[in-house]
Design goal:
mainly alpha, Cytochrome Bc1 Complex, Chain D, domain 2, 2 domains
Length: about 210
C-alpha cells in the first residue's frame, strides 16, 4: 500500500511539474506577436476544399438548397457558372429588405469577416504583418466589377487562398452574403451598375423568420 501511494504521489509530482513547464513555455511563446494572436484569437471552425465531382456527373437534390452543377475553382469555371442560369441572383429584389440585410450581415460576419473585415476592406482580424499579410479587399480592384454569380461561385467553391464554403452554407446564405457585399460596396461608393435579374414569381422569397 505504501509503495502504491508513493508511486501515485510521484506521478502527481511529475504531472504538476509538466504542467508548470508547459505554462512557462506557453507564456514565453505568447511574447511573440503571432503566437500571442493565436492564443487570444477566437476559435473558428476548420474548412476543407471539397473533392470535385467526376466529369459528366449529374447534380442531385441537396437538403441545403437547389441542385447545382459541378464548378471548377478556376477563372474559367467561375465565369462559366456566373454566365449560366445558376449565376442569376434570385434574391436581388431583396437588397433593400431590412430582414434580408440583417441575415446577410450575420452570414458575412460568420464566414467572411475574419479575412475581409467588417467593411470589406480586407483588414479582418487574421490579416497583419505578424499573422497573415495578404488581405483581399472587396471594395477595390476586380471585386466590384465581378458579377453576383461570380461572387456566389467563389464563395461556394473557393479559389487560391479563398477557401470553399459550399459545404458550410446554403444556397440562400451564399446569396445573402453576395447582397451584403454589394451593400458594403455601395457604402464605399464602388458598387457596380445594377445587374439584370430574374423577376418571375418562382424566385420570390419569404423573409419571415430571418430576423
Amino acid at each position: 500500500m505504501r509503495f502504491e501511494r508513493a508511486l501515485r504521489l510521484t506521478a502527481l509530482a511529475f504531472a504538476l511539474a509538466g504542467t508548470t513547464a508547459c505554462t512557462q513555455i506557453d507564456n514565453a511563446l505568447a511574447r511573440v506577436p503571432v503566437f500571442a494572436f493565436l492564443r487570444e484569437a477566437p476559435s473558428f471552425d476548420p474548412y476543407e476544399m471539397p473533392r470535385m465531382a467526376p466529369p459528366g456527373s449529374v447534380p442531385f437534390e441537396s437538403p441545403v438548397g437547389r441542385a447545382l452543377p459541378p464548378t471548377e475553382a478556376t477563372e474559367a469555371g467561375l465565369n462559366a457558372f456566373a454566365a449560366s442560369e445558376y449565376g442569376r441572383n434570385p434574391y436581388a429584389s431583396l437588397s433593400a429588405d431590412s430582414a434580408w440585410i440583417a441575415y446577410g450581415e450575420e452570414m458575412y460576419s460568420r464566414y467572411c469577416f475574419v479575412c475581409h473585415g467588417a467593411t470589406g476592406a480586407g483588414d479582418g482580424p487574421v490579416i497583419g504583418p505578424d499573422v497573415f499579410p495578404m488581405g483581399m479587399s472587396l471594395l477595390t480592384g476586380n471585386a466590384p466589377g465581378r458579377s453576383d454569380g461570380y461572387i456566389y461561385a467563389i464563395i461556394r467553391v473557393g479559389r487560391g487562398l479563398m477557401p470553399a464554403y459550399g459545404g458550410r452554407t446554403t444556397d440562400a446564405e451564399r446569396w445573402a452574403i453576395v447582397n451584403y457585399v454589394r451593400l458594403l460596396q455601395e457604402s464605399a461608393g464602388t458598387a457596380p451598375a445594377a445587374e439584370v435579374q430574374p423577376t418571375s414569381t418562382d424566385t420570390a422569397v419569404d423573409t419571415a423568420g430571418l430576423e
